[in-house]
Amino acid sequence: MQHNIFTAMRSLKFIEGCKGTQVYALNPNGQTAGGGGGAGCGGVGEKFLQHLQDLRVNSARPKTNRSQTSPSHMITNISVENLLPSGLPDVDLLEPQIDPCLRYVDFVQTLADLYRKIADCSQFEKSDVYLEQCAIFRGLSDPKMFRRSLRAARQHAVDVHSKIVLASWLRFERREDELVGTSAMDCYGRNLECPKACMVSGYDPESVNDPCMCSRSPRGEYDDDISIEDNECSTSDEDGDMSFCIGDDEIRCVRYNIASLSRPFRALLYGGFSESKREKINFSKNGISTEGMRAVEIFSRTKRLGSFDLPIILELLSLANRFCCEEMKSACDAHLASLVTDMEDALVLIEYGLEETAYLLVAACLQVFLRELPNSMYNSHVMKLFCSSEGREKLALVGHASFLLYYFLSQTALEEDMECNTTVMLLERLGECAKDGWQKQLAYHQLGVVMLERKEYKDALNWFEAAYEAGHIYSTIGIARAKYKRGHKYSAYKILSSLVSDHKPVGWMYQERSLYCVGKEKMMDLNTATELDPTLSFPYKYRAVLLVQENRMGAAISELNKIIGFKVSPDCLELRAWISIALEDYEDALRDIRALLTLDPNYMMFYGKMHGDRLVELLHPLVQQWNQADCWMQLYDRWSSVDDIGSLAVVHHMLANDPGKSLLRFRQSLLLLRLNCQKAAMRSLRLARNCSTSDHERLVYEGWILYDTGHREEALAKAEESISIQRSFEAFFLKAYALADSSLDPESSIYVIELLEEALRCPSDGLRKGQALNNLGSVYVDCDKLDLAADCYMNALNIKHTRAHQGLARVYHLKNQRKAAYDEMTKLIEKARNNASAYEKRSEYCDRDMAKSDLSMATLLDPLRTYPYRYRAAVLMDDHKEAEAIAELSKAIVFKPDLQLLHLRAAFYDSMGDNISTIRDCEAALCLDSGHLDTTELYNKALKRVDEQQK
Q1: Over the stretch 15-61, which tens digit does the pLDDT of each residue have?
Q2: What is the reported pTM?
Q3: DSSP secondary structure letters along 518-548
Q4: What domains, with CATH codes, occur in the chain?
């Protein structure tokens, strides 16, 4: 089967030859192709995947344009002191945040254990185990892994309660509450999230992706046009053999029909009570009206509720509870549940449901509350129900208090406001619902983190200790931090030293211990933390601030550039801007603050003393002023030189002048995806959708939102609907991307080519045309049409789409023009600000020594890229240095548990005859992607050998 050439066509960034930095860059069916680099190891080193990496995200980072002249009119009354209300940053005020998620010392073994747990559990337990997987994946940098596990949990859910919570959570992950014109109960068309489908109990994992029934008439089994008026005389005096008297009214009934409603009625009417011999029974003191009793009589004959008014249905529900009429109660429960459509209905009916223990009615009300999150968190009645112990007990009586429910609620609260009382109370309820070990670890650890943020250190210590006792080793750093805050610094140091000596060292251990030591020992711990886990930002920040205090500003910025080059975060951008202001380099400072505000629009600078927008106002007059035309020129310049942060800053500037420009919001989302800031990218996409001025444009953005949250077919449908309204570049581009997100056969490739050509015929700006040409060239390469591919890449380069050098190099390489390929990549290295991928790619077009040098540079610039580790490991295996090869892969796996790395290490272990290690790594890899065929094959072979040895 031919390899999929687009893992993400929206991004310009592609990489041939198993260089994906994301797990999802792998071919989903597990097939592999020969890789570059010339290293082998009995075929193991060559089994790298040929795949493109997120083409949507492809811009690199352009060099900052320094050609602008200084502004001719400066505001002279703004001093550095005004811009820096807190002075220079202080190392004593820096400390790393404790992650509010599960973390493990041996993450690979945790994944392996979880895979076996999923494989061995019964089908009715799978949803709970997938929820555990969600909790573990929550700590990973890729939110798609979490959402995939969440979908699996929903797929295997059995009861209505689990279905409504999981479906609501999936909807929340798309944050559809931010889409203008949508309502909480809207359905996107599949059973997976359909509010009506969630109200049906039963295990049916194959149906979750089927189209739902929302398009059908809402009239159902209860809307049968039977009314009290039409039927009140249907039981004639001749048919009826007894009456219920309520006040002066008599309701004629058939004794047998009423007795059939429940055992208490049967005992009343046919048992030893005096009523069994009476024709008229006084029923006035049983809390039901004459109309209600007539409805009971109708139900006793028809087993239907008809079109009774709501008060009558509520009376029937109450009577059914008192007299144990299960069939009537179920009918009332389901009918009332079908009436709940909005927040107002839910707030009214939830009390009846709780009082009468109506499972479906409460479920329907809960579903509205959950699908209205986070807005419903600000409703006092809703929060009283969820937050209080009494509310939890009421929900428990109806079967609706669960760890799952409070996990969703507490995570939403943590995102909204970590320190508020609501968050604390929800986490306390989460702890009360926790049963399994991992559930207790999570609830107690998160309570510890929240209490630490609230500066309630004694409570924080108690919760962290409880989490540690439940088995969560990572909570040890919370124990140490709480003791440190209470003045016990040496005790904290001893705790961390013991942790380092008792377990295999991990970067966060050394990072934490550095807080409790000084001088050279502190710096040694920080450097060790970076060596073990280069993705930890605190060591870079600390070293940078230390350099600032030594008045080595340039070196401080260089230190921050090391991590910003591969992992962009608001805190690091803030610190770099802070230093730039101290250097009076206002252009760079403003660039970083604008980029920061794109990631977090509400960010408070300088220890929370100044809003980022205010600092933009202060800095703006001190830099060169641009009109909108200047901004477009600057954007082209930065986009072509692959300067994503600079591009983000320009787009932020343009949006300040034109906040309703959906195209700019969309461009912003592409840049954020390139920077792996997926939450911020989704927010920009939602804003683009809300700002759309036409239906066809809105549909395209809705399609991207659906695609990015795992709904490929729905995204395709949006693209097709948009094209039916108006042919546009973006609609064709979306459709081509969504169709190409699988292994393309020749026929599919031809269709994708046609779609991209249609896109190029539609009006668009040069930036997007460059992306389309680049993608089209990639398709031509896969179809072995190298000359056509080269034309596409050359045309892309003519409009300054710099990434096309990479595609052109690939064409030259396939034509055996190795030197030309090398030269193309050299051009890309010279032009691109972010050129780690260019060094990595150029390594394929040179000899082994030069390749090693390029790959070392790639790792230095971006340690998250996995190909260099795999190449070096394969070379070491070729040289029969097995231990060194394993160590090379293990070094990366510690901070990036990647499917490709785990599969290759498993293969190395397999070639060494270490079946136990092979099985462990295969299980960990399959936990990340259970459908990877190569790993499955290797796993089964290792299991068979172990089984044969045991026999």
Answers
A1: 233 333 332 222 333 333 333 333 333 333 333 223 223 323 333 33
A2: 0.88
A3: -HHHHHHHHHHHHHH-TT-SHHHHHHHHHHH
A4: 242-339 (3.30.710.10)
